[in-house]
Amino acid sequence: MSFFYLFAVLAVLLVTPFIYFRISTKTQSKKKTSILYGVVAYLLTTLLKMILMATFLPDSDQEEADFTAQFEPVSALITIVVSSLDALGCFLALRACSGHSEVRIFGVSFAWSSAESILSFFFVSWIGCLKPEFNWVYMQNALGSNINLLKQIAFTHIIWILWKGKFQNPDKRNIFIWLSAFFITPELFNLFQVFLNQYSFFGWVLLVLKFAVAYGLFITSKKFYQSFEVLNSNKKKN
Fold this sequence. Notes:
This protein has 8 helices and no strands. The protein has one domain. The chain is globular. It is mostly helical. The N and C termini lie far apart (64 Å). α1 packs antiparallel against α5, α4 packs across α6 and α5 packs antiparallel against α6.
């Protein structure tokens, strides 16, 4: 049964990114190039974030397993500031790529979320699902990885607009507000997780909340991107 659980979790973890990769209508060579830049950008950004977190994050006497037992505002603020480096890494990856905007956005978002899934969820699921007793948290993590893919696509759209729009987009104030949401909402979810654990709710409630937020960010960023592309095409025609 352990192998059945493992197969189910890995299927949920990997099928959605694979489908997203296959439905892309752009050339394979362009996709591979942008994906490579996205993976490199994610690894370097993550390494820098780990160094900064280890340097500035206050030490805690709690074990990692008890992290959700309390919520520390100072640590949350430091995490938000350090997480903002994702914007720089995403921007550098987009700038290094070549080709149509859709190719760049696809490659960077796919590579970023896939690398995060492998490093954060894949190996943990592989070890955890082979235990005699199955824990649904691994399935929740796999579904959460798919939600992160949706969120990363939205995040890459926002970074692209801010870069190509030269900060002159008419909706720039709203765009910056939505950009800040990508860094603030994870810490809010940590706070919600403290509440849910105290009242013995399952992680499925938090998963639904994460999907709702990610979907809202995706729809909004998609509208920003489409309006930006229309505005840009009109400028070229004139």
